[in-house]
Amino acid sequence: MKPFRIHIPATSANLGPGFDSIGIALNKYVTLDCEPSDEWHFIVPERDQAYIPSGKENLIYKSALYTAQSQGHHTLPAGKVTLHNDVPIARGLGSSSTAVVGGIELANHLLDLHLSSFEKLKIACDIEGHPDNVAPAIYGGIMISTYDGEELDYVRLSSGLESLTWLAVVPDYHLETEKARQLLPSELPYKDAVHASGKANVLVAALAEQNWALAGKMMMRDQWHQPYRKQLIPGFDEVHETVEDAGALGLYLSGAGPTMVALFDGVQDSVLDSVKEQLSDYTLFVLQADLRGVYTEPSMVSN
Ligand code: HSE
User: Fold this and answer.
1) Measured in angstroms, how far is the CA atom of residue 297 from the centroid of ligand 1?
2) What is the pLDDT of residue 196?
3) Domains and CATH numbers, the chain
4) Which atom of ligand 1 is the closest one to the Cα of 181?
5) Which of 23, 179, 269, 271 is most exposed by smallest CB count within 10 Å?
6) How many CA atoms within 13 Å lie on the side-chain side of 78?
7) Minimum CA distance residue for ligand 1 atom 4
8) What does the chain look like in DSSP terms, one character per residue?
9) Whose CA is nearest to atom 6 of ligand 1?
10) Atom 7 of ligand 1: nearest residue by CA position
């Protein structure tokens, strides 16, 4: 095996009412440098060592093995994988999806599987359960997808995204998706579901038509999850007020949170600087859409 390097983008899911279905890839990355080795080993940045195991319990390894087995292989040739991680963990920016997609890509290269993007997505959905983060991590751009355990369908949007800025406002605490999902009701009255679905429909149409102002408006009118989860995000209203004053078109809880993402069209640096000053308790990332998705290249690492 020649050394290779896998790049996987961060993702932001839901975009408001697109619960478990819509996500965008953003230009922040996890990079995996893969080399042959006698046994599996993950070199994890010190900052992340409390959360990312260095052995076979690692989600990248588990996803790679799952992929291998789904294609009729029983084992994987051992590798040493060095992680470079710019995606904060358990903050709602798709860190676990980077591991799932990275693992699938790792098996794809180690075993020469020649998986298509759609095959990778199917495997990723089987591992993750829903497509909203893994789909854009694989394809780049905005992915609108549905998977019910059998049928998998998607539409990819990419036109016009270059003018947009996605400002990620990251609080200083972790939030496990499982905990944030426990707050959701197990049932929704039919009428409420019809209204919630209408908002999601208009969001998708607005994204497709590049009507960013309407998309931003719909992000804030979600009825599927944000009203229930806001109680876990004490700063949501303050952040909302600040970014709205700065001209944001909308703000939504990224995935299960706690990160919030504000959408801007053509924002000036001075405006972003002022937002950063006002939200100094948060880490802010000024991001653009990634249109490429996961990819692999020969590595510069020498043996
Ligand atoms: N759609 C998911 C949620 C995103 O909001 O719970 C996290 O996987």
Assistant:
1) 30
2) 97
3) 4-158+290-298 (3.30.230.10), 161-287 (3.30.70.890)
4) 6
5) 269
6) 8
7) 255
8) ---EEEEEEEEEE-TTT-TTTEEEEEEEEEEEEEEE-SS-EEE--GGGTTTS-SSTTSHHHHHHHHHHHHTT------EEEEEEE-S-TTSSS-HHHHHHHHHHHHHHHHTT----HHHHHHHHHHHHSSSTTHHHHHH-SEEEEEE-SS-EEEEEE-TTGGGEEEEEEE-SS---HHHHHHTS-S---HHHHHHHHHHHHHHHHHHHTT-HHHHHHHHTT--SSHHHHGGG-TTHHHHHHHHHHTT-SEEEE-TTSS-EEEEEES--HHHHHHHHHHTTTSEEEEE-B-SS-SEEEE-----
9) 256
10) 255
Structure tokens at 50: 């409390």
Q: Which two tokens stand for residue 218?
A: 């719909």
Q: CB under 6 Å to ligand 1: residues?
A: 13-14, 19-20, 130, 132-133, 177, 180-181, 225, 255-256
Give nearest CA residue, ligand 1 atom 8. Answer: 255
The 10s digit of each residue's pLDDT in 52-111 is 999 999 999 999 999 999 999 998 999 999 999 999 998 999 999 999 999 999 999 999
